[in-house]
């Protein structure tokens, strides 16, 4: 009986350890993308943003993505961005819990609705990955380029490490089950 229970517990461990945590990539505005005339509050409502997920902004050359403070988001102020992106295809990893705020930096666009706030839950995960990833990020005034350099290799390494750990635990469980 104890041998059967041990085997069952190891089988459960194998299944749980072999399934890596899944991150979701959210395309902001879905097929509409990042442009005026989209209700981004409605778009974000009910979405379970978690650490490890990403936001993908797709937009034309007349737009930008600025990450801003809550106050600047409320006031639609583009004068003090935390980060600035203008490459027309920006992916932002959600690396820690909390609320993140984004606006379009083009005059009048935020006031016409090009603003987004997302609340990120920890989802039981922790990350030491990048704070953002963009192929053409510009440092905000008063910051250094190092604060805004892309770092997709760190995200890939963290994801690969989680997968390797899951596979290793699964193999140990399987070996114990067989032995």
Structural class: alpha+beta
Summarize the helix and strand pattern as letters.
HEHEEHEEEEEEH
CATH topology: Immunoglobulin-like
For the largest beta sheet, what order do the strands appear in spatially? 7-6-3-4-9
**pLDDT averaged over residues:** 75
For the termini, the CA-CA separation is 16 Å
The CATH C-level name is: Mainly Beta
Pfam family, one: Cu_bind_like
Region (Disordered): 122-148
Signal peptide: 1-23
InterPro entries: Cupredoxin, Phytocyanin-like, Phytocyanin_dom
Blueprint (SSEs and pairs):
Layout: H1 2-17, E1 25-27, H2 40-44, E2 54-58, E3 65-68, H3 70-75, E4 83-85, E5 89-93, E6 98-103, E7 115-120, E8 133-134, E9 137-138, H4 152-178
Parallel strand pairs: 1-2
Antiparallel strand pairs: 2-5, 3-4, 3-6, 4-9, 5-8, 6-7
Helix pairs in contact: 1-4
Protein name: Phytocyanin domain-containing protein
Domain Phytocyanin: 24-122
Region (Disordered): 122-148
What does this structure look like?
Residues 24-122 form the Phytocyanin domain. This is Phytocyanin domain-containing protein. InterPro entries: Cupredoxin (IPR008972), Phytocyanin-like (IPR039391), Phytocyanin_dom (IPR003245). It is a single chain. The protein has 4 helices and 9 strands, in the order αβαββαββββββα. With 179 residues, the chain is an alpha+beta fold. Helix 1 packs antiparallel against helix 4. The protein is elongated and about 70 Å long.
């Amino acid at each position: 009986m104890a041998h059967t229970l041990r085997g069952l517990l190891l089988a459960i461990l194998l299944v749980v350890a072999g399934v890596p945590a899944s991150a979701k990539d959210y395309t902001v505005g879905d097929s509409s993308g990042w442009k005026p005339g989209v209700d981004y509050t409605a778009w974000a409502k009910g979405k379970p943003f978690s650490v490890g997920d990403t936001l993908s902004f797709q937009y034309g050359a007349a737009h930008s993505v600025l990450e801003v403070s809550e106050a600047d988001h409320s006031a639609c102020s583009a004068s003090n961005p935390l980060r600035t992106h203008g490459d027309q295809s920006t992916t932002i990893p959600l690396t820690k819990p909390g609320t993140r705020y984004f606006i379009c930096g083009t005059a009048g666009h935020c006031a016409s609705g090009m603003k987004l706030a997302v609340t990120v839950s920890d989802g039981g995960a922790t990350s030491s990955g990048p704070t953002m990833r963009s192929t053409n990020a510009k440092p905000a005034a008063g910051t250094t380029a190092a604060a805004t350099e892309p770092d997709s290799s760190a995200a890939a390494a963290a994801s690969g490490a989680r997968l390797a750990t899951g596979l290793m635990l699964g193999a140990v469980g399987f070996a114990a089950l067989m032995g």
